[in-house]
Amino acid sequence: MAGNSRRHGAIRKPGTKKGAVVGSGGQRRRALEGKGPTPPAEMRPGHPANKRANAAAKDAKNGAKNGRPTARVAGKNRRRGDDDGPETVFGRNPVVECLRAGVPATALYVAQATNADERVAEAVRLAAEAGISILEVPKVDLDRMATGALHQGLALAVPPYEYAHPDELLEIAQDSDRPPLIVALDGVTDPRNLGAVVRSATAFGAHGVLLPQRRSAGMTAVAWRTSAGTAARIPVARATNLTRTLREYATAGLMLAGLDADGRVTLDEFTLAADPLAIVVGSEGRGLSRLVRDTCDVTVSIPMIGPAESLNASVAAGVLLAEVARQRRHTRRR
Prior knowledge:
The structure is a single chain. By secondary structure, the protein is α/β, with parallel strands linked by helices. It is 35% helix and 15% strand. It has a 7-stranded parallel β-sheet, sandwiched between helices. A 4-stranded mixed β-sheet has the order 1-4-2-3, sandwiched between helices. α3 (92-100) runs parallel beside α4 and α7 packs parallel to α11 (313-333). The longest helix has 21 residues, at 313-333. The relative contact order is 0.11.
């Protein structure tokens, strides 16, 4: 029974040669020593983050070797975390449209045994002319990449867009031979609207486009495509705090004009076009936020005679930019 020292085997006979049962007990201390802190995921061989980092480094090296442009010229004060992640565009028409618009890309994926048509042929030709790697992959690999999206045998890998710093926009504008003109977007969430604003800003001589870090569309492949390639000709910056950045612009001498349906002046009464200027465009639904509206020196409304109550954000921005360009041309002629 338990606790009975007289039971067989309960007490080892004296003189036995067998010693204490050997455990680790520190006798194999070296084998138990740690190997130091765990390295970052990017430095661990075989880790997905390590594979992505190696692929990005290889793409950057190949791009520099072939003279291929990156997503944007990086701002000299660009901060870590200011970029969007990479994306992949699927489908024959979207891929061809991106390549026609000059969207920076690192690779074109073509599924094996794809039924080639004129769109596939054009995609391959445009990618070859732009120096983009063309990779023929099994269809199952594209299925895995698309995760259910319709890819039609084509996919285009687009690297993260590299944003400029807000201070860089101001420096570019001040160094120009024209009065500074910057377009700021307050909560525009549709990338097509963003691309259209970038296109109008380039067409009417703006020095840059400013976006808030949060609650705003980014320069995705859709925005780049809508800009019709003009995103390669104008810097786009992101501000951690849009209101604070606009106040810094005002301190530097820029007048702030916000587009608002209930603006204090109409487009016909707008007289600040010849001054250093930042045009602020509100979101598609609610317009300018309260803090941004209070920061503006003037709010401008666009008079309309039709039944429509408001204009699309990108259309309104284009109208005001066109008026600014017209007034500036008239001022130079005097």
